[in-house]
Each structure stands twice: as structure tokens, then as C-alpha cells.
UniProtKB/TrEMBL annotation:
This is chorismate mutase. It comes from Sphingosinicella rhizophila. Keywords: Isomerase. Pfam families: CM_2. Residues 14-105 form the Chorismate mutase domain. The keyword Repeat does not apply. Coiled coil: none annotated. Gene3D superfamilies: Chorismate mutase. The lineage of its organism: Bacteria, Pseudomonadati, Pseudomonadota, Alphaproteobacteria, Sphingomonadales. Its EC number is 5.4.99.5. The keyword Metal-binding does not apply.
Length: 240
């Protein structure tokens, strides 16, 4: 018979209780410091509203490129903190910072995969913004054009709602909502200016010929959806 060795159990003596108490009081002190830092960060973020345009058709206060830069830098600097923790915590901090500048709406049109898209939208945009389900895709995009709102629209290889975005200067696809396997479920669209969109990936709307041409030149580009001769693509640039 194989004998299973028991791990030594910690003694519930005074020394252990004392060290747990002292650990907890150090954690409490640290939490107070963290809270004070979070409140200072929120105040700084809130004051960014004063330097952003307030016109209803001006670019959104949301700045995806800046957010991506912050996340990438912190993930890079983290040593013991797991990437998921860093991303989650800072996504929430930035979401509440943005909310302190003024409310932003998240409008979802995803009739096929509503629950999953909503869940992943929350993870991507944090819990500060209100989420509304919009049954009509045009209504969803119209809100993104005219309100402080981001449209999250489900994507299928044969959906064609994106065609009209090809001729619009103000509205841009700036991110994807994906699941755990990396499959793209929906796209995030908003009034984000060209310089505020993360440099990669980009979502060009181009003809089939241009897609082939760009691929031929070594660009890492693929079609996400097709409508007639047009293709909505995801481009990760050209490898150097
Ligand atoms: O840098 C900005 O433009 C901010 O508004 C600050 C901040 C942040 O909290 O760091 C908040 C929201 C933006 O989407 C990006 C960053």
C-alpha cells in the first residue's frame, strides 16, 4: 500500500494569528493608498473633459489609441501581476475616468449572439457605461453618428451593414469584440478620429482587386465580410 505523506498543517497558535493580523493591517494600509491613488487618477481623467470638444458631432471623448498604449505599457512593465489582471483593472479605471468626463452609451445590435456579445462588450469597455440593445442596425449606427455612443454590431461573413461606413469620414471601426477563441463576434464603431484609432489592426473597406494587390505586396490582410465586390478587411500591416 502506498503511504500518502501529509503536508504539515499550520499551527493555529498565537504566532500564526499574529502574523495574519499584521499581514492584514499591511494590506489595509496598502488598500487605503491604492484608493487615494485611484481617486487622484479619476480626478485627472475627469479634468481631461475640459480640453475635449463638446459638440454632439465632435469625436467621442473615448480615445482607443491612448487606452491601448496605456494597457500595452503597463502589461510590459508588470512583473508578477498577470496580464488579465492588469488589463481588467485599467480597463475599469479608464472606463470610470471616461464616465467622469460625461456619460457614454454602448449600443449593441447582435440579434444572433446577444448574450455573448454583451458579456464581451462589458469586459472590453468596463462597467461604467450603460448598455442598450438596439434591434435595428441603422438605428444603432445613427446613434453612434449623433450621440456620445459606441455601436457594437454583430458581424457575419455575409452581413453588409458596414458598406456605408466606407464613404463616411466621421464614423470608424476601431475595435473588435471577440470570444475566448479569438473569433470576431462584433465590431466597435464610433466617431473616433484617424489619429485616435490604434495603428493596428485597421479595418479597411476595399474592392476585391485592392485586397489581392495589398496581399501580393506582403500586407497581413484578410477579408472579414463580403458584399458584392467589396470586402471589409482586417489588416495587421506589412511585416518588415
Ligand atoms: O487621455 C485621455 O484622453 C483621457 O481622457 C484619459 C483616459 C484615462 O483614464 O487614462 C480616459 C479615457 C480615454 O478613453 C483615454 C484615457
Amino acid at each position: 500500500m502506498v503511504e500518502i505523506k501529509k503536508e504539515p498543517q499550520p499551527q493555529a497558535g498565537t504566532a500564526t494569528v499574529k502574523s495574519l493580523e499584521s499581514l492584514r493591517s499591511r494590506i489595509d494600509a496598502l488598500d487605503e493608498e491604492l484608493l487615494a491613488l485611484i481617486e487622484r487618477r479619476l480626478a485627472l481623467s475627469a479634468s481631461a473633459a475640459t480640453v475635449k470638444e463638446k459638440d454632439a458631432t465632435a469625436p467621442l471623448r473615448l480615445r482607443p489609441r491612448r487606452e491601448a498604449e496605456i494597457l500595452d505599457r503597463l502589461v510590459d512593465h508588470a512583473s508578477a501581476a498577470p496580464e488579465t489582471l492588469v488589463r481588467r483593472v485599467w480597463r475599469e479605471l479608464m472606463a470610470f475616468g471616461l464616465h467622469a468626463q460625461g456619460p457614454i452609451e454602448l449600443l449593441i445590435h447582435a440579434p444572433g449572439r446577444n448574450t455573448t456579445v454583451t458579456e464581451h462588450t462589458r469586459a472590453r469597455f468596463g462597467s461604467a457605461a450603460a448598455i442598450t440593445q438596439v434591434p435595428d442596425v441603422e438605428q444603432c449606427l445613427h446613434a453612434a453618428r449623433t450621440r456620445e455612443a459606441v455601436a457594437i454590431v454583430e458581424l457575419h461573413p455575409l452581413s453588409n451593414w458596414w458598406v456605408e461606413l466606407g464613404s463616411e469620414a466621421a464614423l470608424r471601426i476601431f475595435d473588435t469584440i471577440g470570444d475566448e477563441t479569438g473569433d470576431i463576434l462584433a465590431l466597435a464603431i464610433g466617431r473616433v478620429s484617424e489619429q485616435d484609432v490604434p495603428p493596428s489592426p485597421l479595418y479597411p473597406i476595399i474592392g476585391m482587386g485592392s485586397l489581392e494587390l495589398r496581399r501580393g505586396k506582403g500586407e497581413n490582410i484578410r477579408a472579414l465580410a463580403a458584399a458584392g465586390h467589396l470586402r471589409l478587411c482586417l489588416s495587421q500591416g506589412t511585416a518588415r
